[in-house]
Write a structure and sequence with these properties.
The protein is mostly helical and about 700 residues long. It has 26 helices and 6 strands. It has helices spanning about 1-20, 25-45, 50-105, 105-120, 140-165, 175-190, 195-200, 200-215, 250-265, 265-290, 295-310, 330-360, 405-425, 430-460, 465-485, 490-495, 505-530, 545-570, 575-595, 605-615, 630-640, 640-655, 655-665, 670, 675-685, 690-700; strands spanning about 165-170, 170-175, 220-230, 230-240, 365-370, 405. The strands form 2 sheets. A 4-stranded antiparallel sheet has the order 1-2-4-3. It has a two-stranded antiparallel sheet with strand order 5-6. The longest helix has about 50 residues, at about 50-105.
Amino acid sequence: DAANARRGRALLAIAARARETRRGRRAEDAAGDARRDAEALARDARASGASEAAIDAIEACARSARAWEEAAAAREDAARARRTARERASAKARERDAEDALGTMNLGEAARAASAANVILRGEAEEEDAESDDDRGVDDEARATCERVVERVRRVVDEEVSASVVFEGSSRVSIDAARLRRACERLAEISADETRLRTSIVARALVDEFLAPMIRAGAKSVVKVVEEDGGDSLRYETATTKSVDDDSAQASLETALRWIRSKLPNEDVAKAVGVEAWGDIAKTCVKAWLSARPSERAIDRTCAVEVVASNCGFVPPPSDGAASYAGGALGPLEAEALATEMREAETRRAAVLARARELALSDDQTIVRTLGDAKTRGVGRGTGEETETSKGANNLLDGAPRTVSKATDLLAAHVDDVLQSATELDPHAHRASASLAAAAADCLDLFRACVIAARGEQLKTIHAASLVFYNDCHHLANRFSASVFARGVALERQIGRTPALIWPVEPLRALGDATRAEANNRALRELHAALDVASGFLRSAEVQVKEDIVKSIARARHVIHRVGTTSMYVLPDPIGTQDAAELALHYARRVTLEILSMEDISVEESEALTEIIGVAFASEGLVGKKGDEDAIRALLRAVGPEWQKVRELGVMLSAPLRDIATSWERGSLQKVGFTASEVRGFIGALFSETPLRAECLARIG
């Protein structure tokens, strides 16, 4: 009971505070909350068997709260009625003020009456009843009256704004700047947004009646500012002659924009006109100037127009809230101009690269022979499968003739044509020329990527394909370098700077070099694998072993013939001869080393080895097609004394001991590369220990 009594007194205190509520939460709501809480507590008290004193205290609280709730509601209704009466009276007063002002064309007073009506509409009128907390908005009747006031004043000001701009046909416009300024001042008094909303009339009229027809007239439209007694006007005429500057349309629009801005009263009005009009002006300019593959100068002049418009305050910020238009452009016109230029450049670039890709991925196996330098003749004259000679005019850097794929030769010609085209564009097309020249350089990089992707496995297994690709890389790099050099002055003049175009040359050469080096390494591995079957030429006197050695030698010579012939016929001299000689040199050194490493050579083995070396190092059929003695002689010259050394070794295997010592003393063995230790070791392995051997070893030293 004591607890319930305390709760009852607390509720009475809540009800007392509710009676004091004047602002914030409404007194009616506070009293209602207290009443509902008290009634709920009374029900709980009865249900729990509380004492009568406690229940009476709680019910007293509920009655008190209910009484105050009813009183607060009555007071709020009275305050609301007073507020409605004031709003209606104030609205009627503003309506009378506006009608009186408009009757005498006092736009200032009319605008102030409309502004006061807007204050009522926004619910910002001064609150006289401090006890009212009604938030149900402005009275409907007062709202309708205020809206009539504002709309009536707007119509009159709109008429003034419209009257300040006068059109004569579609080719002449005049603006009464003073009248427009006064009208805009009145608009600013009505509300902060009125200038932006109502000047749309001027903007739309200027676009539809004058600017759009003038822009559509194109390069033949000539704009003039005509001075008259009552002021000046803007007029455009259509030129009848054909001798019109290409940028006259842009110049006319710039003149018109500057003139219009001079007639607007302030920057806010200019921005309002721009928000309404510039988007449509930009679209009209794009359609008139940029729809038919515009020149670079036309694009530049179009961008310059938007600079003028921006300086006049006509270019609005992007509607999506971005910091700038696409591509960092100043406005929608420049953004579309730059996009048009980018599309044109990308179209040209795509066409150039599409043709390059087609040639790079071509599966045409046709090969051709380059012209090379007329003063140089290589040993090889091609594979015999070349169908024609390269038609390129820039082959001098190729040096000696080489075999290349026809598709690569056509690609070199294509790149040359692209560079030529870059020098023949319009003199003002600096960026287009730079883009086209860069596309020519990109063709080399595209070739590199396409071939690796499409023929990578082939280049890892087929020697001839690897060497032709090496030639292709260098031929394309050479032709491109010569083409850039030949057109360097013209390109610099056309672009306005020296273009950086040679960057893909060295990577292309490096790829060709790496491909050739890997092909040569594969051939070396194949050669040594063939010689491994000979098992160091041991036990060569045995019939089966000798047959295996002969087969090993035959396979090794086949590698030299296949790879060496391909290198000497396909690659330019002396590169092809050097590669073939490197392979033959490894062959000669391997055989020489293994025979000289033998510790004991029997008579039967010496006879077998003499026969084997005679076959292994016969010059006939070593490289080249049948009867191509020039190729064989060139190869042996490039190999040097190592080849003769192993042949001399074959002679020494069947020579008397004294003859070997005499040959050493005469210096003939030293000429082919033998050292004293090699000869002494060979004699020790071939001849048994006798006084004669000791004598000969002493002579050798």
